[in-house]
Give the backbone structure.
Amino acid sequence: MSFTLARFVLLHSRVCSEAATTTKNNGGLISTLKKRKFTSTAIPRAQNKTSEELLVVVGGGAAGVYGAIRAKTLAPNLNVVVIEKGKPLSKVKISGGGRCNVTNGHCVDNKMLAENYPRGHKELRGAFFNVHGPVDTMSWFSEHGVRLKIEDDGRVFPVSNSSSTIIDCLMSESTHLGVSLQTGKAVITASPTAGGKFLLGIEKRTFSSPEYVEADYLLIASGNSKQGYSLASQLGHSIVDPVPSLFTFKIEDPRLADLSGITFPKVKATLKIENARRNIPQLTQVGPVLVTHWGFSGPAILRLSAWGACVLSSSGYKGTLIVDFTPDVHIEDLKSILTQHKNRFAKQKLSNSYPSEFGLVKRFWIYILGRQGLLGDTLWASISKNSLISLAHMLKHCNFYVTGKSQYKDEFVTAGGVPLSEISMNMMESKIQSHLFFAGEVLNVDGITGGFNFQNAWSGGYIAGTSIGKRAVGA
Ligand SMILES: Cc1cc2nc3c(=O)[nH]c(=O)nc-3n(C[C@H](O)[C@H](O)[C@H](O)COP(=O)(O)OP(=O)(O)OC[C@H]3O[C@@H](n4cnc5c(N)ncnc54)[C@H](O)[C@@H]3O)c2cc1C
């Protein structure tokens, strides 16, 4: 059992009065609560400042709904209204291929966890995950009746393998607490009032004239919507230019299409971008890569796209990808393996026989021969020493020209948004406007694949909800 898992179980059994039963299944731990339990840390009503105060949450996504639930849990008399222009939790629905990768269960400490955020890794190292990290997220969902499992690579999913389980949980908790969820409406304007409130212009899909509402607290959790950035600007915030992150690479090489569908379980890939002003160590990644009909995909490529999102955007998504297809074999060993193979299989054709030590598939071997200008019918005996050395170099430093990006269907996020320097991270409150809070993707935070993006939404929503709830009850 990993450290994280052990902490999850420990914390979980401490929080719940009912006994939790645990079983191993599907390569991960499944926690089953015998009874559904709403843990309410609500402060008694008598202490509430007023029951008239209003929190408006812009956006019914993961961050907004989680934040609303937390605020209403702490301050039951606070009016909490979530305004959602489309369908609530629509990204949760499609996330993780419909399974919802809720968080990541493999990060043993918060500093290590923060390393998974190309934008935010410095700022998230502090209190952010201490207040509400992946273990807290797992506990929260388990306490609210969702059975979770951790897969071998650390990704956490509902045991049901259905994102609807997460949606049902959040929606039923919102209803149970009395959070008002208003759909089909968009918050289009926001301005501070002299009395320290927010005047919000809300437009219904069906009506042309907006209605106006005065809110005591405002939580902007609008994801990557332009309207959300506009609201932040109207309230005095700057916006770091939004650019896509987590995409696959288009590669200029017609012969690569013949390799479509081949997976390399472990390559070392380095992305070089012309005119990149700074050296980004994370632009070298080791991991699986998949050849698609347009180029490269897979975890190592998605990580490169995330770390290179801003520089790639400025370069027009042009760069060079240098791939080491045998990262565990030293170049000198590679040369001697090829020489030994030549001596042993001198009478065999190049295309029919190649060293098994490299773990490469035949289609790819033929591709590499083609790139070296070697014909498959050539016998190993006729290969020159220089050709063997070139083959070894090609396997270690194979260059591909990146000519563009393609959107990855399973996960896609936006880098950029409200800069974290304008946010007090232990409260998720604006440093520019008191009582204004932000959470989720609207901020200049984005993670690599593996559940880190939702974790940012849960943590931010929880911290903002806590700050608002406590202030509403005068704590
Ligand atoms: C296909 C896909 C799959 C993904 N899979 C995963 C995954 O498995 N794991 C993971 O960690 N991450 C995943 N992500 C990323 C994850 O979905 C986001 O990081 C996360 O949804 C961000 O949550 P949020 O609440 O900040 O924003 P959102 O989920 O985008 O919610 C914002 C909401 O605000 C609403 N809104 C915006 N402006 C306004 C306005 N002015 N008025 C009213 N409403 C407004 C929007 O309609 C939206 O519903 C995936 C993303 C995509 C696109």
The radius of gyration is 26 Å. Residues 134 and 383 are 55 Å apart (CA to CA). Residues 1-48 have pLDDT under 50 and may be disordered.
